[in-house]
Design a protein that fits this description.
Alpha-Beta Plaits; globular; about 130 residues; 5 strands
Length: about 130
């Protein structure tokens, strides 16, 4: 799988902010789709009660995640008043510099921790073409 990286962050939605957050995240997802051609997937999920948001993205390599933080990074601070980030989980091994940037993002958006999960075994198959539409 090489440098494949999966990223999952979990945030609490601040009371009364769900509508604003859904709009902001739809805009962010559209921006990422238009401006980050290397990202394989970028998906936003909300719990049934709207109290929790999870953002999952898949990257073919570390450079894709680095580009995401660079390109979309300026769009993170406006989301800060809408959430409290609880955690970022990285599946794959980032560089120390990238890990530091992820920790800074977690602190900007909440009090979240960053956890790295090293690959033990497995594989990934991705087909290029049309984006997945849930």
């Amino acid at each position: 799988m090489g440098n494949f990286i999966a990223y999952l962050d979990t945030s609490e939605v601040r009371p009364g902010k769900l509508g604003q957050l859904k709009e902001a995240m739809a805009e962010l997802a559209a921006f990422v789709e238009q401006n980050e051609p290397r990202i394989l997937s970028y998906s936003v999920y909300f719990s049934d009660d709207g109290s929790t948001m999870k953002v999952l993205h898949l990257h073919s390599d570390l450079a894709s995640l680095e580009l995401h933080l660079k390109v979309a990074g300026a769009r993170f601070p406006p989301v800060a008043p809408l959430i409290t980030m609880k955690s970022i989980e990285i599946f794959g091994r980032p560089t120390e510099e990238l890990l530091a940037r992820l920790r800074a993002k977690a602190q900007l958006l909440g009090t979240g921790s960053v956890t790295v999960h090293d690959l033990h075994a497995g594989f990934a198959r991705f087909h290029t073409g049309q984006p997945f539409q849930p």
